[in-house]
Specification:
Blueprint lengths: L3 E8 L1 E2 L5 E2 L13 H7 L3 E4 L11 H9 L6 E11 L12 E9 L4 H9 L6 E13 L2 E15 L25 H14 L8
Parallel strand pairs: 3-8
Antiparallel strand pairs: 1-6, 2-3, 4-5, 5-6, 7-8
Helix pairs in contact: 2-4
Length: 202
């Protein structure tokens, strides 16, 4: 059906900034009962070209609402399945890592753009998670526990070294924005108000 099986992220792995994505705290997000996986099963998970970027003068709450939104005009990919691979990938030092894999297909307003890149054997294709994490500093490094997954976006270079076409069986690239619990709650309240008149809102 035109779907590609690709690695789009990883857990128990360091990103390009040396931050460690923990599996233990995030594993429930990949269980079939989670709201994220229910969205996948409904066929409603799409990704954009690039992560949303904060505009000059944009409030944290407004930017967070943009992060939580999928802009139909910028969609390039549809995900029919997301699953974890515990067996087939290792760090350069030989330790096992958990790959986040997806069955994905070019789709939406920017789908042709993605299809051309997938078809070009000399051009890499990379994805990056768009998520909210809880960060702690332990053992000389930042540990990131994913609390909310919004989607996975096409990016120019992966934050996780296995999340690319060349490594596949077939807001990571951006600087982190630190938000407080009250800011998160305010943004979510604003989002509820904004969505009252939107039938397509998740």
């Amino acid at each position: 059906n035109g779907y590609y099986d690709m690695v789009i992220g990883g857990l128990d792995i360091l990103n390009s900034a040396g931050e460690y994505y923990e599996y233990q705290g995030a594993k429930e997000l990949f269980q079939q009962s989670s709201s994220f996986m229910r969205r996948v099963k409904r066929g409603a998970l799409r990704g954009e070209v690039g992560h949303p970027r904060r505009e000059m003068g944009q409030s944290i709450e407004s930017y967070m609402n943009r992060i939580l939104d999928i802009d139909e005009k910028n969609v390039c990919v549809h995900f029919s399945d997301i699953y974890l691979d515990f067996e087939n990938f290792k760090n350069p030092n030989g330790t096992k890592i958990i790959a986040i894999r997806a069955k994905l297909r070019p789709s939406g307003a920017k789908g042709d753009f993605l299809q051309q890149q997938l078809d070009n054997p000399k051009e890499n294709v990379c994805f990056s998670i768009r998520s909210f994490t809880e960060n702690t500093y332990r053992g000389g490094r930042t540990n990131k526990v994913i609390k909310t997954i919004v989607t996975f976006d096409y990016v120019n270079e992966p934050g996780i070294h296995i999340a690319e076409k060349y490594k596949s069986p077939s807001l990571e690239s951006l600087t982190d924005v630190v938000v407080s619990q009250p800011q998160m709650e305010k943004a979510l309240d604003q989002r509820k108000v904004l969505q009252l008149g939107q039938e397509s809102a998740v």
